[in-house]
Amino acid sequence: MICLIQILKSSAVVNFILIVIGSLIGVLFNRRISERLNKILVTGMSLSVLYIGISGLIADDINVLTVVLSFAVGSLLGELLNLDKHINTLAEKVENRFNGTKISEGFVTGTLVFCVGAMLIVGSIRSGLSGDNTTLYSKSLIDGITAAAFASTFGIGVMFSAIPVLILEGGLTMIAAAVQPVLTTEVVNHMSVVGSLLIVSIALNMLEITKIKILNLIPSIFLPLIFCMIL
């Protein structure tokens, strides 16, 4: 019950609301939202995400070796599992399966963009572990802007993609909050630093500076659970 209340107060609800509002704005203004305006707003959001990632790197008692090993082993696991390819392949299958009507096209497109991303995973974990919703608030704002752009093209179907976003973000936040009491401050700090580095990578991709397969790096955020105990 406590976890459920936390979800209802969390940024998952904010993300849900902003996607709905953005979609309604997109439908109302139709194609009046210019690509130029959308691009400059996304650039501004990207710089904000970069700042959030950098600011999250400041933590006490960080063992650099733990961070290095987490990324080394995590990236190898992610590459061997090829998470990026599998998730994108699944996304393509879903898109092909439901790409029949304008409403379903908008729903599928919105769901894939808003749900298939490392920022949702990292942000939800940080929210559940430390109550820091900064990452998800930034994601919410970006999603709201993107929803407006999508809805001006695909219509009201984009708005319904807010539902799976609420379920996924809320569920991951609840899981992270449930395991937080058994984690030490040291483990949480190291997971936060690894997650912050992933957020920096997300911002660099958003700014089109790099093309990092961030989904293949996701296992790294969980490895401080092991290496903090060993080291």
Which key terms come to mind for this protein?
mainly alpha
In a nutshell, what does this entry contain?
The protein is mostly helical.
Which consecutive residue ranges, at least 5 long each, have pLDDT under 50?
none
DSSP helical segment count? 11
- How many E-type strands? 0
Tell me the radius of gyration. 18 Å
**Based on CA inertia axes, which overall geometry fits?**
elongated
Report on the structure:
The protein has eleven helices and no strands. The chain is mostly helical and 231 residues long. Helix 2 runs antiparallel to helix 9 and helix 7 packs across helix 9 (162-179).
Topology:
Layout: H1 2-9, H2 11-29, H3 35-55, H4 64-81, H5 83-98, H6 102-115, H7 118-130, H8 134-154, H9 162-179, H10 185-206, H11 224-230
